[in-house]
Amino acid sequence: MAPLKVLSVASEAVPLVKTGGLADVVGALPAALEPHGVEMTTLLPGYPAVMQALGRGRAVHAWDSLLGAPARLLAGKLDGGYPLLVLDAPALYAREGGPYSDVAGRDWPDNWRRFAALGRAAAEIACGAIVQGGEARHFDLLHAHDWQGAMAAAYLRYAPMNERVPAIVTIHNMAFQGWFDREVFAQLGLPASAWAIDGVEYHGGIGMLKAGLSCADAVTTVSPTYAREIRSTTFGMGLEGLVAARGNAVRGILNGIDTDLWNPAGDTALTARYTNRTLERRLLNKRALEAEFGLAESDGPLFIVVSRLTWQKGMDVLSGVIDHLVGIGGRLALLGAGEASIEQALRAAAARHPERIGIRIHYDEQLSHRMLGGGDAILIPSRFEPCGLTQLYGLAYGCLPVVSRTGGLADTVIDANPAALAAGCATGVQFDGVSYDALISALTRTVALYDQHQVWRRIQKNAMKCDFSWKASGASYADLYRSLTA
Ligand code: ADP
Ligand code: GLC
User: Fold this and answer.
1) What does the alpha-carbon distance between residue 284 and residue 327 come to, in Å, rounded to a whole number?
2) CA of 120 to the centre of ligand 2 (A)
3) Tens digit of pLDDT for each residue in 13-31?
4) What ligand 1 atom has the least distance to the C-alpha of 255?
5) Rounded to the nearest whole angstrom, what is the distance from the C-alpha of residue 148 to the centroid of ligand 2?
6) Residues contacting ligand 2 via CB (< 6 Å)
7) Is 337 in the pocket of ligand 1 (CB under 6 A)?
8) Is the dihedral of CA 458, 368, 361, 237 positive or negative?
9) Would the CATH topology of 4-256+470-485 be identical to that of 279-465?
10) How confident is the model over 90-121, as pLDDT tens digits?
11) What are the b/e assignments for 401-410, b being 16+ CB within 10 Å?
12) Which CATH code is given to the segment(s) 279-465?
């Protein structure tokens, strides 16, 4: 079978630029799809970090004006990495700060132009408009991620292109929709017909995710449970009607994890590497972690958190149960950054409980590995969670996930209730509803399990045997691609 050529377009991808799980997934997809005969090329904005990593790259196309900005397309490949296309448009992307906001955390005011341009370029590239060495680069399908990539599907539908290829939009988080004022419509280079209820118009403005959901041939999200949840008002965040209307075109494909990067047997970030047969070696990592966070050495349970500190992640509730966590003999090492009020509450909790609560308010990939290798349980009390990756890392590392029963958390963790314990299949702790009471009782239950050493070991082994690699999900994406290109 001829390889299927897919253009993936997104605003972040490991190892180049990451603010969350989107980057892990976009960075892992090319290798996940390769065994299924899919050649994936990834298009990213030319942020400074991306330009630097790419080196010189080969210029394969130039636009005098891509939605008003001069731009070049560079082609390259990182060492041992996947094929890349980078949209080098200094007026849009060459800035200090994050991919979406300035150093002070304020959204860039021209985000509409930055990501509409990305979508426009993606649509043109996917349709073979880029001629290289006299030959058009041809793609069979376009796969766009989140609102920042979603306009590609709208440009494919509305803008005159040589050839129309099918488009998939993947929703990684319904809470970020890319809504902009109606004034920008005139500058998007779309025909007047795109200003329609089944086009880009949304509540009197431009809805970029909405446009993608309307225009894509298929829509996926990152877990089966979230695919169901977003049909309801609570999780659909205004787009539930559209999701329901698209019916079977919307489906959930669970994220996988990159088992080369997330594997305790080969993880060079760890003091002691281990497998499910050498779990006692985790103690060395736990001791190292206690020292690193300034915690008193203890054989009691060491909880960890690696998370954006936001309302979505239930971090406000977590900060309110810390005294209880300490009261039942727990300790906590937390790594994250986010809302100022939550950071403040966590700092205050750490000050109340020196040697029991250690917090690091920043972003540190290597430290996150050490925490998973030494912590006993990872707390994820999310109010909604499209998939979630940290519970999957927790399972792989025998750092048992304690999770709210929502989205991908519901799909990937088996609660250690009496029936699951008797059946020998438990992999963590789940609870319903993100409230102080629910979290407190989940913590209490976790500590009780931890105190039964044999039971805890068994759950750790079950967790580490789970296969959340990309094997199954890579095949699901490949099947979907083929069904759209047949
Ligand atoms: P989300 O994308 O909603 O933030 P996920 O669980 O899908 O949630 O992915 C979060 C990713 O970001 C994981 O790879 C996690 O390890 C990482 N992460 C989050 N906060 C930090 C941090 N402060 N330092 C290092 N890694 C972090
Ligand atoms: C989003 C979601 C998270 C998911 C990630 C990757 O950031 O919040 O649940 O795992 O995307 O799909």
Assistant:
1) 25
2) 24
3) 999 999 999 999 999 999 9
4) 7
5) 14
6) 20-22, 25, 172-173, 222, 255, 385-389, 408
7) yes
8) negative
9) yes
10) 999 999 999 999 999 999 999 999 999 999 99
11) bbbbbbbbbb
12) 3.40.50.2000
